Design the sequence.
């Protein structure tokens, strides 16, 4: 199967251990499950629209095995989002602690960041794209015909009606899932999420 991003991954970063990936997967699962507190902040800006987020840089930081320092460096370079919402979830290793799942919303892109309260470490764990303004190096973007998705990525791992799932275990990448949501035979949304097992 072809890979959905064609991003170049450098081997100079240390490999992420299964424990970190398990932790991220558990945290993301908890974040997406029911019942957690949320707090939303909208930002209004005067003047020109905010600088767009680079999809390739986001995918590179999220999917390439890297250190907490590398993830923090990437997150510190992001422009101010249009809206921020926080959800608080129990830490999967110590249920007494609450971690934060923060969603940064930009025009046509939403980035989910998991923050471990005990260490203050932050990691990008999911990105949702709903605008054709964002495109991967291999041509994957919102608005693409379903047949073109298959030409780029191959057949999906699973199909659930108009939702296609690609589970990716590529060398030198964190295991992840790409969800392609279709409407009238065209891509309506793309969502990459780090996962393990």
Sequence:
């Amino acid at each position: 199967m072809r890979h959905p991003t064609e991003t170049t991954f450098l081997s100079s970063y240390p490999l992420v251990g299964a424990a970190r990936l398990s932790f991220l997967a558990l945290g993301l699962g908890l974040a997406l499950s029911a019942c957690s507190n949320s707090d939303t902040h909208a930002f209004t800006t005067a003047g020109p629209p905010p600088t767009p987020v680079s999809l390739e840089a986001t995918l590179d930081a999220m999917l390439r095995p890297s250190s907490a320092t590398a993830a923090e460096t990437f997150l510190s370079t992001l422009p101010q989002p249009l809206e921020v919402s926080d959800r608080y979830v129990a830490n999967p290793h110590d249920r007494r602690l609450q971690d934060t799942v923060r969603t940064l919303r930009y025009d046509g892109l939403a980035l989910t960041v998991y923050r471990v309260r005990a260490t203050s470490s932050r990691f990008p764990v999911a990105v949702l794209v709903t605008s054709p303004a964002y495109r991967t190096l291999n041509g994957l973007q919102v608005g693409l015909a379903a047949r073109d998705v298959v030409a780029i990525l191959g057949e999906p791992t699973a199909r659930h009606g108009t939702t296609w799932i690609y589970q990716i275990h590529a060398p030198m990448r964190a295991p992840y899932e790409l969800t392609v949501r279709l409407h009238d035979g065209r891509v309506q949304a793309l969502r990459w999420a780090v996962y393990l097992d």
